[in-house]
Write a structure and sequence with these properties.
Helix content is about 20%, strand content about 40%. It is of the alpha+beta class. It has a single domain (about 1-95), classed as Gcn5-related N-acetyltransferase (GNAT) (Aminopeptidase), CATH 3.40.630. Helix 2 (about 80-95) links the parallel strand 4 (about 60-70) and strand 5.
Length: about 130
């Protein structure tokens, strides 16, 4: 598996043949777009097909992880963890001191495993905001 930077400071997903199956699943689950400037990363299998997508909104000394998604048929194979660890190491290399994210029940364990602390629960969204201090 390999991770690619697929867009800086954009709010939409890129075009290309390798993304068609991923986009169909994103649309099927009504996975929304983020309206703030972010950097997108995609995870690709050995056949160059995109199987996962994640984003980061960068600030001066902190960042926010957004839009992490793995295609259902590829879940449970370590791809989500690979994207998470890639973004954490990238944040460290940029001198980031704090990472925040809003997590669903599916992504929360991955953050807690890496030392993130829950700081707020949004009842209406059914999401937990977490903070990871590097």
């Amino acid at each position: 598996m390999l991770i690619r930077v697929i867009g800086n400071n954009q709010t939409d997903y890129p075009n290309g043949n390798g993304y068609s199956a991923l986009y169909r699943e994103l649309d099927a689950v009504h996975f929304g777009r983020v309206t703030k400037a972010k950097t997108l990363y995609s995870l690709h299998d050995d056949n160059e097909q995109a199987i996962g997508l994640c984003g980061v909104i960068w600030f001066a000394r902190s960042c926010r992880f957004v839009n992490a998604f793995m295609m259902s048929e590829h879940r449970g194979r370590g791809g989500y963890d690979l994207m998470m660890d890639y973004r954490i190491e990238l944040a460290r290399s940029k001198g980031v001191c704090r990472i925040e994210a809003c997590c669903t029940d599916m992504s929360l364990p991955a953050f807690l495993k890496r030392g993130a602390v829950p700081i707020h629960y949004y009842e209406r969204l059914k999401q937990t905001k977490v903070r990871l201090v590097l």
